[in-house]
Amino acid sequence: MMWKTKQFSELTLEELFEIYRVRSEVFVEEQHIVYADPDENDKKALHIFETDGRNITAYARIFKNHDHITFGRVLTT
Question: What is the pLDDT, as a whole number, of residue 28?
Answer without folding.
Answer: 85
